[in-house]
């Protein structure tokens, strides 16, 4: 898993302190399991984000990071489903 999409995903995960998901990628864990682990994390993080007061700029950049992470997980999931 050394393609550009995987590298971008790993950088986004590291930037958001999701090192356990980076380890799952490095260990060759199935993309679906990584996506499930991310969904569990995102649900917990969403409730924490509601309770915090941050300025709008930080909130926007963090939310856009999460959207990018979901996008790359979907791309990698499609790639693994087709067996390419």
Provide a descriptive summary of the structure in words.
It is a single chain. With 84 residues, this protein is mostly helical. The protein has one domain (4-82). The chain has 4 helices and no strands. The chain has helices at residues 4-15, 19-26, 31-51, 56-82. The longest helix is centred in the C-terminal third of the chain and has 27 residues, at 56-82. It is globular. The two termini are 12 Å apart.
Topology:
Elements: H1 4-15, H2 19-26, H3 31-51, H4 56-82
Helix pairs in contact: 1-2, 1-4, 3-4
How much helix, percentage-wise, in residues? Answer: over 70%
Give the overall average pLDDT: 74
The counted number of beta strands is 0
> Distance N terminus to C terminus?
12 Å
Low-confidence stretches: none
Q: Report the order of strands and helices.
A: HHHH
Query: Could you say which structural class the secondary elements and strand pairing correspond to?
Result: mainly alpha
* Cα-atom radius of gyration: 13 Å
> Any idea what the shape is?
globular
Strand content: under 5%
Number of domains: 1
Q: Please summarize the sheet with the most strands.
A: none
Number of helices: 4
Explain briefly what this protein structure is.
This protein is mostly helical and 84 residues long. It is built from 4 helices and no strands.
Task: Name its key features.
84 residues; mainly alpha; 81% helix
């Amino acid at each position: 898993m050394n393609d550009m999409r995987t590298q971008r995903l790993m950088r986004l995960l590291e930037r958001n302190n999701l090192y356990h998901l980076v380890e799952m990628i490095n260990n060759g864990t199935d993309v679906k399991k990584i996506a499930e682990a991310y969904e569990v994390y995102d649900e917990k993080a969403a409730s924490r984000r509601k309770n915090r007061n941050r300025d709008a700029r930080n909130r926007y950049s963090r939310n856009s990071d999460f959207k990018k992470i979901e996008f790359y997980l979907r791309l990698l999931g499609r790639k693994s489903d087709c067996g390419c």
